Amino acid sequence: MTTTLIPAPFGTFTADRLVRDLWTRPAPVARTGYAPAADVYRDGDDLVARFDLPGVDPERDVTVELEGRRLVVRGERRDQRVVETPADADGPDAASDAPAEGESEDARAETVEKPAGRRIREVRFGEFRRTVTLPKTADADAVRASYNAGVLAVTVAGVFAGRTPQRIEVTRAA
Q1: For the chain, how many structural domains are there in total?
Q2: Which of 10, 11, 41, 157 is a Cys-bridge partner for 142, taking CB atoms 3.0 to 4.6 Å apart?
Q3: Which residue range forms the structural domain that includes residue 96?
Q4: pTM score, two decimals?
Q5: Do 117 and 131 belong to one domain?
């Protein structure tokens, strides 16, 4: 028995798969920042939104705004690390300002600016913006924000007041 193989350089490429992939992929986060984790829930008549923002100075780097029916939290996580010099820069040649023989001044500057021993960077820095849509417009006086242990908690009081769910009876068709 003979088997014939037909080469398929693009695999099973169909137009409907391409369109489906365009609609099912998650929206990308802005290149300059990140999106902090959020937990939004109802607590009685209040809406509570909690955002994980460790290492952020809330007075300087976070803004909470109310824009109609939108609660907007924006800010920036700054890189607080101190740049360290490599261990070999502490030797006797480190005190001289002149580059070593065969070493350009640019190359020496690069070795001094790089942090020593860092291999993995999982913490994201930069600007962020998260928006929560409210069920109805709220007054700015009804919004309270507090920051504790790296978590920003924003409470919008009374935004669910008078909005109790109505149960609709489902009947069977004859």
Answers
A1: 2
A2: 157
A3: 81-122
A4: 0.57
A5: no
